[in-house]
Design a protein that fits this description.
InterPro entries: DDX52/Rok1_DEADc, DEAD/DEAH_box_helicase_dom, DEAD_box_RNA_helicase, Helic_SF1/SF2_ATP-bd_DinG/Rad3, Helicase_ATP-bd, Helicase_C-like, P-loop_NTPase, RNA_helicase_DEAD_Q_motif. Residues 34-73 are annotated as: Disordered. Pfam families: DEAD, Helicase_C. This protein has 2 domains: 112-345, P-loop containing nucleotide triphosphate hydrolases (Rossmann fold); 355-513, P-loop containing nucleotide triphosphate hydrolases (Rossmann fold). The protein is globular, with a radius of gyration of 35 Å. Helices cover 46% and strands 13% of the residues. With 535 residues, the protein is α/β, with parallel strands linked by helices. The strands form 2 sheets. It has an 8-stranded mixed beta sheet with strand order 1-8-2-7-6-3-5-4. Strands 9-14-13-10-12-11 form a 6-stranded parallel beta sheet, sandwiched between helices. Bound molecules: adenosine-5'-triphosphate. Adenosine-5'-triphosphate (ATP) is lined by residues 162, 165-166, 169, 186, 188-194, 323, 444, 446, 448, 470, 474-475.
């Protein structure tokens, strides 16, 4: 504005040589009056108006004196000040009106966006609570347009065959990318791993050498190893330091000396490293507690607590993920997190709707063995996972089925790390048809294409049921779950029946008429599994 000629003088012809001294004088005045104008604007509306009216009158008089002109005069602009002020009043009013208009427009657009988000969330069964929750993702491409997602990651997603984000990914990814803390609950097999790994890689941007920047905690070594592999796949083509906390690493590594952007560990191993002062977590920007409800159970809470304390970076983003989110975990999350967003897909603590669930009465322990043999003889549709309540019972059932001409294996916590890894790998590779297991692989494990889960022993809680049967029917595939029950389990049947009905399975009406019993940990003493007569 300062150097622009006033529109009032367009066309003035002026002898610059002759009036050089005047030009200099007026130029100074021009600067002075300009600064006067600035201060007058700063002084409030009434003073501004008064001054402007006075100057406007003066300017009109002067204009009349000068008459009309035909040439542009740079730098000679005696009336510019008054004109500018006159315009500035108009401008201020116009600005105010346009700000007001813009505000209204923005508000309208915001409301329309909120409406669109609400409709989209409803379509995908996403429920959110929290302040100012970011819009869900329409597609993976939006990661680029909205968040400048690096192309290596988009390429990796494509190569992994992920065409569309799953509902939890649609909502949790933008929440985390917006730097918000998050606790989330979504069905088993619905892609929660990608929902926290993808924004983590985007936030970390590039590999660095200054210490650990992200930590993922998982309750078992098997799940840690699985998430380690998933991270590697998603980070392909980018040289992030991704480490799995193995026994060896814990014993021998000097964490200050090797680059580690992301560390994946069980709480026990990480706590040991913290206690031995082998590890510095004060730079951690991103902390994930996977299977968070399990991690917050009393036996693990002490370990989690020391990790939370060691991650002392004030700008850390923490997130909790699970398929089951009991109220006590939500309470903890609210205490722990700042301005967190809660994301629930479907209904909380529900079994996946892609699993056909069935209850089978076996009467007694012997009845179970007969039932499983009969089921395998009629139609064995591998891979099949069979859950038992203890490692002793898992070993016993393995002892029974090992000679039945089916490819069977067993996994429990008494096996060495290598044996456990082999059991998982062989099952994944299809070498094992039936894997007998304890709850050690009930949560988080992604065995692709498990056709059937058999609860040989009735699960000891609602969440155990949801997670166990969730090893089947993953990523939109269908699956089957069969739960054996004996007389002893009848008091707890109604709880499973409720879960079945809630996920759309047909439940005999007599089951719904059973008395509802509060589901405490249900682990009855059971007879040993054997076809050999007691001696
Ligand atoms: N967008 C996607 N499209 C298709 N498949 C996907 C997508 N995201 C993840 N998956 C696949 O879905 C499967 C289940 O994912 P994941 O193991 O993360 O589930 P989860 O929700 O963590 O389950 P759980 O509660 O049992 O731990 C995996 O095989 C994964 O590769």
């Amino acid at each position: 504005m300062a150097n622009e000629p006033s529109f009032l003088f367009s066309g003035i012809r002026f002898n610059r040589k002759k009036f050089g001294a005047d030009i200099a004088r007026f130029q100074k005045k021009d600067i002075d009056t300009d600064s006067a104008k600035i201060s007058s604007v700063a002084e409030g509306e009434s003073a501004k108006t008064r001054e402007a009216v006075e100057e406007k009158t003066a300017s009109t008089k002067k204009r009349k004196r000068k008459g009309n002109t035909s040439e542009n005069v740079e730098g000679f602009n005696v009336f510019r000040n008054s004109a500018s002020v006159a315009r500035s009043i108009g401008d201020v009013q116009a600005d105010e009106e346009s700000i007001e208009l813009k505000k209204k427009k923005n508000k309208k657009e915001q409301n329309q966006q909120l409406e669109r988000d609400a409709i989209f969330r409803k379509q995908h069964n996403i429920h959110v609570s929290g302040y100012n929750v970011p819009s869900p993702l329409q597609s993976f491409d939006e990661l680029k347009s909205r968040y400048k997602c690096p192309s290596y990651l988009l390429r990796n997603l494509k190569e992994l065959g992920f065409k569309e984000p799953t509902p939890i990914q649609r909502q949790a990814i933008p929440v985390l990318l917006d730097g918000r803390e998050c606790f989330a609950c979504a069905p088993t097999g619905s892609g929660k791993t990608l929902a926290f790994v993808c924004p983590m890689l985007m936030k970390l941007k590039d590999p660095e050498k200054g210490g650990i920047r992200a930590v993922i905690l998982c309750h078992t070594r098997e799940l840690s190893a699985q998430i380690f592999r998933e991270c590697k796949k998603l980070a392909k083509r980018k040289k992030f330091g991704i480490k799995l906390m193995t026994k060896n690493l814990l014993r021998n590594a000097d964490f200050s000396k090797f680059p580690c952007d992301i560390l994946i560990s069980t709480p026990l191993r990480l706590r040991l490293a913290i206690k031995k002062k082998k590890i510095d977590l004060s730079r951690v920007e991103y902390l994930v507690l996977d299977e968070s409800d399990k991690l917050f159970e009393p036996e693990l809470f002490k370990q989690i607590d020391s990790v939370l304390k060691a991650c002392s970076n004030p700008s850390i983003i923490r997130s909790l993920f699970s398929a089951t989110l009991p109220d006590f975990v939500e309470d903890r999350a609210r205490e722990l997190m700042h301005d967190a967003v809660r994301v629930i897909v479907g209904r909380k603590n529900m079994a996946s709707e892609t699993i056909k669930q069935k209850l089978v009465f076996t009467g007694s322990e012997e009845g179970k063995l007969l039932a499983i043999r009969q089921s395998f003889a009629e139609s064995l549709n591998p891979p099949v996972l069979v859950f038992l309540q203890s490692k002793e019972r898992a070993k016993e059932l393995y002892g029974e089925l090992a000679f039945d001409n089916i490819r069977v294996d067993v996994i429990h916590s008494d096996l060495s790390q290598q044996e456990r890894e082999n059991a998982v790998d062989n099952f994944r590779a299809g070498k094992t048809w039936v894997l007998i297991a304890t709850d050690v692989v009930a949560r988080g494990m992604d065995f692709k294409g498990v056709n059937c889960v058999i609860n040989y022993d009735f699960p000891d809680s609602a969440s155990a049921y949801v997670h166990r049967i969730g090893r089947s029917g993953r990523a939109g595939r269908s699956g089957e779950a069969i739960t054996f029950y004996t007389e002893e389990d009848i008091p707890f049947l109604r709880n499973v029946a409720n879960l079945m009905a809630a996920s759309g399975c047909e439940v005999p009406s007599w089951l719904m008429d059973l008395q509802k019993k509060k589901w405490k940990k249900h682990r009855p003493k059971r007879d040993s599994i054997s076809t050999k007569p007691d001696l």
